[in-house]
Amino acid sequence: MTVAGERRRKKQANDAPAHTRSPDPAALLAWYDRHRRVLPWRAPPSTRADPYRVWLSEIMLQQTTVRAVAPYYLAFLQRFPTVERLATAPLDDVLKAWAGLGYYARARNLHACARAVVERHGGRFPDSEDALRALPGIGAYTAAAIAAIAFDRQASPVDGNIERVIARLYAVETPLPAAKPEIRRLAEALRRGRRPGDFAQAMMDLGATICTPKQPACILCPWADACAARRRGDPELFPRKTPKQEGRLRRGAAFVVVRADGFVLVRSRPENGLLGGMTEVPGTAWSHDFDPEIALEEAERIVPLPLEARGRKTRWRRIPGIVAHTFTHFPLELIVYTAGVAAGMPPPDGMRWLSVAEIGGEAFPNLMRKVLAHADTALATAGRLRRGIAVAHVRGTE
Ligand code: SF4
């Protein structure tokens, strides 16, 4: 379309009577019937979705993309095909199957929720938003998504994709997150009557495939004529956002201790808090004012083991470079020290030895896989340990 033609189109749209500009739910459903995405957890048209699969996919999709989740979802489902199987599995098995998806609190909640569904509801997910919200790890969005998709309840899940669609449709000027209640009201008013499960999924698909954050494909949008942001010509400016404040950088040190018979010293993080319950190599606290000068003193306090000198001046060896990682709320930089101890040495209190062969299956967060990969290169070069620690397929963000 020429520039003049596009101007004419915008003027006509602006001049159109208000009632012609309301987004029509039927138009969205018709578009969905033609263009719905095929997803591993999605039921075929006209069939009811399995609540267990809907719930599992929604928990996995929190903070993670469809493309990243799909292979994990299929492998997880193969391992835990029913909510009963998941409920009776040891937590450690669940954490291992989850490793790589990040945000491990979700995996612990997933397990707790499966147990609650079995214990409180006889293995059947409840079908109302209120009852779903009473389960561990299920918030307002997930409850609405399960109620709508699995039970065809009149519920309006509003995630980031749907927020974007609504903010653009109505050119909502209030910035996020303050705009959330207004966007929710608009989303609820838009959902009317038939096929609430399909409507919710159609909104998700529209946000994911057409109304994308950058360069939305408005020309293909079933609501193009009703969209206020499109009429204005600046859909990418919506939703408005309050500028984010970057988290402050934290620093610390990690200590990779290798036993001569092929074991690495590890411990479990406290159950509550960041990366709760996950495995890590010992290290200092992470702080804004970490002093690298005292890292070795800390190493001796945290790892009270007789180290092997092997003719070196110092028993701890700093690996050049740093390991950088970004958590949701702050960036982190770790320096890494390595040391060796004699074969058969017992671990210090609260720690354990993990054989190199078991590293791949251990519930390490991605940060620790980066630390081990960083240490692996130097250790292998020094001939201290056969290569194998570098198992880090770094995925996710936590
Ligand atoms: S017309 Fe464009 S901006 Fe508006 S809802 Fe559709 S894709 Fe999004």
Written description of the protein model:
This protein is of the alpha+beta class. It folds into two domains: 235 residues, Endonuclease III, domain 1 (Orthogonal Bundle); 132 residues, Nucleoside Triphosphate Pyrophosphohydrolase (Alpha-Beta Complex). It contains 15 helices and six strands. Strand 1 and strand 2 form a beta hairpin. Helix 6 crosses helix 7 and helix 10 crosses helix 11. The two termini are 45 Å apart. The N terminus and C terminus are likely disordered. Iron/sulfur cluster (SF4) binds next to helix 10 and helix 13.
Helix and strand composition category: alpha+beta
CATH superfamily of the largest domain: Hypothetical protein, domain 2
- From the N-terminal CA to the C-terminal CA, the straight-line distance is 45 Å
Oligomer: single chain
The assigned CATH architecture of the largest domain is Orthogonal Bundle
What is the helix fraction of residues, given as a range?
A: 40-55%
